[in-house]
Amino acid sequence: MNEAQVHEVLGALEAAGCPHWISGGWGIDALVGRQTREHRDLDLAVDAAREAEALRALEALGYRVETDWRPVRVEVAGPGGGYVDLHPVAFTEDGEGRQEGLDGGWFDYPRADLTIGTIGGRAVPCISKRLQQVFHQGYEPREVDRADLRQLGDCP
Predict the structure, then answer these.
(1) What's the pTM?
(2) Which of 29, 85, 113, 148 is catalytic?
């Protein structure tokens, strides 16, 4: 998944009025302000109320559902080999979010942890450094995860 593909996906979601926040490796890059490694996919938290619109926007770009673990996540594969991993987040009226987990648990998205980063000079919505750190707990990290977390030392 390259920077141009990321911008294309974000533009399509914005045009469709679908709120979203970058997480995962690209989310760390957004916080750091530069691409730090190659990425297979783009992880996005999306407003669960707008999930259908998000999928239609991505379908219009040629993405097709490859992995469907809804309501936890749905991964779509793009025509150029990139993937987008959508994580539907249900938001309350006060802006607090919750994503269902595979084991019956959940992930909280506090409003204070939805922030702005930069990819290729473009301001993008992403999750905070703190939330990135929280989401990297509870599993045995791969080397790429450890490298991503080290990058967080370079951001506020």
Answers:
(1) 0.93
(2) 85
pLDDT tens-place string over residues 95-123? 999 999 888 889 999 999 999 999 999 99
| CB 88, CB 102: distance < 8 Å | no
Contact 80, 7 (CB under 8 A): no
Q: Is 85 a catalytic residue?
A: yes
Which tens digits make up the pLDDT trace of 33-50? 999 999 999 999 999 999
Non-local (6+) Cβ contacts of 65 within 8 A are 55, 74, 75, 76
Phi, psi of 98 (to 5 degrees): -145, 130
Q: What are phi and psi of 104, to 5 degrees?
A: 90, -5
